[in-house]
Structures are given as structure tokens and as C-alpha cells.
Amino acid sequence: MPVTVLLVDDEPLVRAGLRAVLEAQPDIEVVGEAADGAAVIPLVRQLCPDVVAMDVRMPLMDGIEATRAVLRTVDRPPKILVVTTFENDEYVYEALRAGADGFLLKRARPAEIVHAVRLVAEGESLLFPASVRQLAAEYGDGGGNPAARAALERASLTEREAEVLRLMTRGMSNAQIAERLVVGTETVKSHVSAVLAKLGARDRTQAVIAAYESGFVAPG
């Protein structure tokens, strides 16, 4: 089955460019478009896309609020890939905090766009881990977020789960973590699932942000 994508951007040329790049791939299908975040929820319910590629800045409802709205109101929400002009942008970090699964630069090469959609759809690795770390260093709370610290303490991660979380912050996939720890991939998947459940994180990106903001790992 192809990865289905909904494009959300107020610039028609951006949507057309993304559509051309993605539809050139046999395993990706663009199922719809919208010009503003306000149109996302009904389209997500109608089209059930696997991934929403969404501009972070739009006139009526930006990508941050649209992300929150989707995650708050849709039972089985899609993966959300924020599309942005600037990499080091507080809006991008706030979108990740709100629940977005990753971000993509509008100037990215076609191969990078395709890779980002596939990676976010798979959900087994962190997209652009170095950039997420830089965003956390710039706009996070430097390990001083009381709510994040309290959530990590309540999680009571085992030693192995803590080790897996550290490796997740480096952007390692399940297969890479399994190789590093000399265990099976299914074992790693179980540990990752336990980490997400204990942290109350929807995905790896949210778990990694929690790790940075709680001071569990330093983003610098």
C-alpha cells in the first residue's frame, strides 16, 4: 500500500512542487490539498492520510494550532510533517512540542523530501536528530522544564529503557539500537513502546523532546 499524503500550504506553487516530487514515487500517493490549517480536520477525516505535510505559517490557522487540533479531535491521527522555510525557527519547535513528528525545509532536495515522508510514515527513527537537538538547545527550557522533569520521574524508566531513550535522541533506528545493544529488533521495539507509554509520548519525537526538556540528556 502506498503512503498517502495530504498537502497543506497557502502557497499553490509549494503544493504543486511537493505533489510533483512525491507523486513521482511509486510508493507515495498525494490524496488531497488544502490552503490553510483550518481545512485540515475535515480533510483528515475524509481522506485518512498517513502523513500530513503542513506549512508551519498560514494566515487563518497555522501549523502549530492545526497540529494540536488534529491530535485533539481525530481518533487515529496521521503523522504530521511540518514544512518550513527556516530551519532554526521557534515556530518549528513549537509545532514539534505540539505533537508534529518532524519537519522539512521547503528548499530541501527532492530525495530529502521523499526520505522525510517515508521516515515519518515508518516512525522508527527520528528525522533530522541534529536539528531537533539544536532547536531544543535554542528554544527548549535547557532541562529546566518542571513538568517534563516530573513526567520523567513518574515514568520510572528501567536502566535498559533509559539507555534506549538516549540512543533514540541520537536518531538511531530500531535496527541500529538493536545492533548497538546486541539484542533483537523486536526486543528494541518493546523497549521503545514501553518508553513511549511511560512518558505518555505519542511518538519518538515527543519522547526525545521530553528527554531534552527534562534534562535527561543535554541538547547542546
Automatic annotation (TrEMBL):
SUPFAM superfamilies associated with the record: C-terminal effector domain of the bipartite response regulators, CheY-like
Domain of life: Bacteria
Keywords on record: DNA-binding, Phosphoprotein, Transcription, Transcription regulation
CDD domains: LuxR_C_like, REC_NarL-like
Response regulatory domain: residues covered: 4-121
Xref: PANTHER family: TRANSCRIPTIONAL REGULATORY PROTEIN NARL-RELATED (PTHR43214:SF24), TWO-COMPONENT RESPONSE REGULATOR (PTHR43214)
Protein name per the record: Response regulator
